[in-house]
Amino acid sequence: MTMALNVLSRSCPSNSVLELIAGKWNMLVVYALRDGTLRYSQLHTAIEGISQKMLTQTLRDLERDGLVARRVYPVVPPHTEYCLTPLGRSLQEVVVQMGCWAEQHMMEVLSARADYDGQGRTMPG
Amino acid sequence: MTMALNVLSRSCPSNSVLELIAGKWNMLVVYALRDGTLRYSQLHTAIEGISQKMLTQTLRDLERDGLVARRVYPVVPPHTEYCLTPLGRSLQEVVVQMGCWAEQHMMEVLSARADYDGQGRTMPG
DNA sequence: CGGAATCCCGAGGGATACTG
DNA sequence: CAGTATCCCTCGGGATTCCG
Fold first, then answer.
1. Tally of domains in chain A
2. In what order do the strands lie in the sheet with B68-73?
3. In this structure, what CATH number is given to the domain that contains residue A43?
4. Interfacial B residues in 27-66 facing A (CB < 8 Å)
5. Residues of B in contact with A90 (CB under 8 A)
6. Residue A6, exposed/middle/buried by CB under 10 A (0-12, 13-18, 19+)?
7. Domain span including residue B100
8. pLDDT by residue (tens digit) across A43-102?
9. Looking at the domain assignment, is residue B43 inside a domain?
């Protein structure tokens, strides 16, 4: 019964923690902040295809989980900056590795997909 | 304009590759296969809370992407085994690190959530 | 045992409009 | 600029049933 610490177990908090990472945009935001502080609009530009709704929501989630720090400057027009917390930077190391893996192995994945789809599974017109 | 290789760019294949990792169950399946070969039912048991539909679908996706190998023994009752391919094992290293991060830092995340929710955001009845 | 097929609901998430 | 609020629709994914 000593299976407490296990990401595969729903009863283990690490499982829900892992879910937060698995979100579609979470990793990309952490990845985008790898070089330092960015403003909201800069994040919006850096992460292609993200809507403001999702960007805001993702940032709130990451802030809530202690991974991202938000600093608001009370000026007009508004100025808001985001950066990783120490906890966020510890995760960032793994996220960057994940990004590197994706960049390094994307061609293998693509060719695997091509093979798989070419084995008689394509839909002829 | 030399920003080709970038997981943040939708036009870069690595971006879609990263998406496949971000799926809710993909990482857990790769993680579950870290120790070697498992049968369908063993995976179903190991990964708490996954439905057979999602397990099958996730395995198909990972097989299609060249991360998981499927071996079917033509016996009755059926016997099917799954294991990581070399490509899958290269990803597995990063996934295991992600799992370790989740296990090591889950308490920090939990306490951050408690702090955030305690700052006047809870909904009193 | 290892799936495939079907049904169906709720959340995820985009588009748009508005605001301090 | 940095959000919030609302609408609305897709599809992720659970439950169930059937099959070789």
1. 1
2. B38-39, B79-84, B68-73
3. 1.10.10.10
4. 27-28, 31-32, 46-49, 63-66
5. 101, 105
6. middle
7. 16-118
8. 999 999 999 999 999 999 999 999 999 999 999 999 999 999 999 999 999 999 999 999
9. yes
